[in-house]
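Lecture notes, part 5. Sequence design as translation. It can be helpful to think of inverse folding as translation between two languages: the language of shapes and the language of residues. The source text, in structure tokens, appears below.
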């Protein structure tokens, strides 16, 4: 379930970022660029969440 929510949030956040940046640059909104950015965000969050930032047990 956490992977699904990660994908949903990544698509929503990257959509907002893409829309704002394309509006500021006076360019057309591109859904493909939004999905590429979302994929990059999902991979980064999964790598950080599962590996780099995972707490180590010190029992």
């Amino acid at each position: 379930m956490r992977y699904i929510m990660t994908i949903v949030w990544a698509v929503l956040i990257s959509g907002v970022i893409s829309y704002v940046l394309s509006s500021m640059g006076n360019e057309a909104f591109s859904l493909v660029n939004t999905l590429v950015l979302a994929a990059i965000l999902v991979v980064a969050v999964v790598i950080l969440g599962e590996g780099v930032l995972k707490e180590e047990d010190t029992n």
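The translated text above is only one of many valid answers, since several sequences can fold into similar shapes. The two ends are 29 Å apart (CA to CA).
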